[in-house]
Design brief:
six-stranded parallel beta sheet, alpha/beta, single chain, eight-stranded mixed beta sheet
Length: 617
């Protein structure tokens, strides 16, 4: 146990030769779903452990309606399903059943192109081959009616991904739609899937409502994963753990950890081992059953998860009279992991290693300006970049005018159906417009920053006297991507400048085209840092090695915090992962039960067919 970091975490053979198998929560899900009665399943498991892919297994026997609030999550499932040659259909933004679209694998009636032999036109009204229907919340009822037209009710599963999205708001446009969907829903077998869901004893109204309508049983699947270690770093740079945080023995905190063991993932393994060694050496437990050699009887039972569970076991069975002594001992001996973590793009950037970072804040503008301020750009660099961006913007405006004139001319002279054909048949005026557009595009100047202003680049590390750091993570933004961003007119210059530093910003006021580029960069781990609001974390499957929770997130709910920190630590076991808290008051929302959960209140209200709501359909 003392050497578990070398023996387990850094042991590549354990990863290389580990068995490929289902997660326990998947096994439990497949077992429960086969019970021959109507069922409502609350499916709780950590992020990054395959919940979104579980419908692929379920679709071997059942038809699936997969409901997601975030479109790209549904598209990720679709990509996996299509690679398995599953028959998939889509219902996004539907105003009628006729808006549903089938993938070619799902098509039964279609017209082939006489020249190529490929499918030319699909009859989307015939869906008896569909195995997985992927839809957004607004389109659910149309998707439900479509699937019921071709399948028996008992053979369909409503699989609702992240049903608590928007439930952390007192009021939200989706609330009435959610309630309407629940009220009119006819599907009897329902799975509500999330990393965080209320406990059954908190959902009496929802459970009673389901049973009164469909009968059957309600099941709660709750598996934890602490096979990796993610360190929580407080504002001062110290690693946090319960035996550091609570001066008085906190029984409710320990009970919360015991019922939510996924939180053990965020207790540093080294700190667990130090605590275990000290308690065993001083024999500060209640009885000999707590002794390490009695708890672990076989060496194969020693894993990262079991060590952390033993840490929790000791917390539960500690000699409470000795707690103050234990607390004082560890507070005196602990040292800072980092002297500073605030200057995320300058002198503290080297601490962000192995992979990208996400910074969550409600004030995106303020954080973005702070990043620029920390870099302390010389005036001439800012002026040159600003002038280039301004010049490019003027050129872009001219290009947009010429492109509009060209498109209008094509539509008028040739016809919309030939809009994308070659130059044959173009009038002299249209040819000249096309030449003008090409000439202007060649005038777009490439914009770049000196390496010392790109966080964790070689030149930047040299500037910060950290050239010995070999695993500091930096961005990888190609010239092609930079040119694409520079061609976007409807975004502020600040977002373009941040991109040159390897920083992407996700905010509602940025351009949709910019956001799509940022999503692609985030997915391929090309960005050094992503700055986003707390809403961004729902539904994103991007992998991060570090997460900052900003000072302005004091009102962020416990459920949302767990969702946020769950985005960290989904890569290799041996990577160094951290959660960095900018306000230490947020620690209580990680280590203690929050009695005031708005998500619970809203779920009881909205997942209830008795609630009076407007008729939205």
């Amino acid at each position: 146990i003392k050497n578990s970091k070398e023996i387990i975490i850094n042991n590549t053979d354990l990863i290389k030769y580990s068995d490929k198998k289902l997660y326990k929560h998947q096994y439990d899900l497949f077992k429960k779903i086969n019970i021959p009665i109507n069922k409502l399943i609350f499916y709780v498991a950590p992020t990054g452990t395959g919940k979104t892919l579980s419908p692929l297994g379920l679709s071997q026997k059942y038809k699936i309606i997969f409901v997601c609030a975030v479109r790209h999550v549904g598209l990720a499932l679709a990509k996996a399903a299509i690679s398995m040659e599953k028959c998939v259909a889509f219902a996004f933004g539907c105003n009628d059943v006729s808006d549903i679209r089938l993938h070619y694998f799902s098509a039964k009636e279609y017209t082939r192109n006489t020249k190529t032999g490929g499918i030319f036109k699909v009859d989307n009204s015939i869906g008896d081959k569909v195995e997985i229907m992927i839809c957004d919340i607004k389109s659910y009822l149309y998707a439900m009616r479509y699937m019921l037209a071709f399948n028996s009710n008992e053979n369909i599963i409503l699989y609702w991904d992240e049903p608590t999205i928007t439930l952390d708001y007192e009021d939200h446009p989706l609330h009435d739609i959610i309630n309407n969907n629940w009220k009119i829903n006819e599907i009897q077998n329902i799975i509500l899937s999330s990393a965080t869901l209320p406990k059954l004893n908190e959902l009496d109204t929802t459970i009673s409502d389901y049973k009164s309508r469909f009968g059957g049983e309600v099941y709660y699947i709750n598996n934890f994963d602490c096979s990796k270690t993610v360190s929580i770093i407080n504002r001062e740079g110290y690693v946090e753990a319960p035996h550091y945080t609570y001066e008085e023995y906190n029984k409710s905190m320990i009970q919360y950890l015991d019922s939510n063991k996924t939180i053990l993932k965020y207790i540093d393994l080294d700190e667990c081992i130090e605590f275990i060694n000290y308690i065993n050496k001083k024999e500060l437990y209640r009885n000999d059953n707590c002794k390490c050699d009695n708890y672990f009887t076989e060496i194969e039972n020693i894993t990262i998860s079991s060590i952390k569970e033993y840490y929790l076991f000791l917390l539960k069975n500690i000699n409470i009279k000795e707690w103050k002594r234990i607390f004082v001992y560890f507070r005196k001996k602990r040292v800072k992991r980092y002297e500073s973590t605030s200057y995320i793009v300058s002198q503290d950037a080297y601490t962000l290693v192995n992979g990208p970072t996400i910074y969550l804040s409600n004030d995106i503008q303020k954080m973005s300006h702070f990043c620029l301020q920390c870099m302390n750009f010389p005036n001439n660099i800012i002026k040159n970049i600003s002038d280039t961006i301004k010049s490019n913007s003027e050129i872009n405006k001219k290009i947009a005018i010429f492109e509009k004139d060209f498109d209008d001319g094509i539509s008028k002279e040739i016809g919309k159906e030939k809009k994308m054909s070659n130059d044959k048949g173009l009038t002299p005026e249209l040819r000249q417009l096309k030449k003008n557009i090409e000439s202007l595009k060649q005038m777009i100047e490439t914009v770049s920053l000196p390496g010392m202003y790109i966080p964790n680049s070689r030149d930047h590390l040299i500037k910060m006297n950290k050239s010995d750091i070999t695993n500091a993570f930096t961005s990888d933004i190609s010239e092609i991507i930079v040119e694409k961003i520079m061609l976007i007119n409807d975004i502020e210059d600040i977002w373009k400048l941040l991109l040159l530093m390897g920083i992407g910003v996700f905010a509602s006021h940025t351009s949709p085209e910019y956001i799509e580029i940022m999503k692609d960069l985030a997915k391929s781990k090309k960005l050094y840092l992503i700055i986003a609001t707390s809403d961004y974390i729902y539904g994103t499957n991007y992998q991060f090695d570090h997460c900052y929770l900003g000072k302005d997130l004091e009102n962020m709910t416990q459920e949302k915090i767990i969702q946020a920190i769950g985005r960290v630590g989904r890569n290799k076991v041996s990577d160094e992962y951290t959660i960095r808290i900018r306000d230490n008051n947020l620690l209580s929302k990680i280590f203690e039960y929050d009695n005031n959960k708005i998500e619970v209140r809203n779920m009881e209200k909205l997942f209830n067919s008795e609630e009076e709501i407007p008729d939205l359909y």
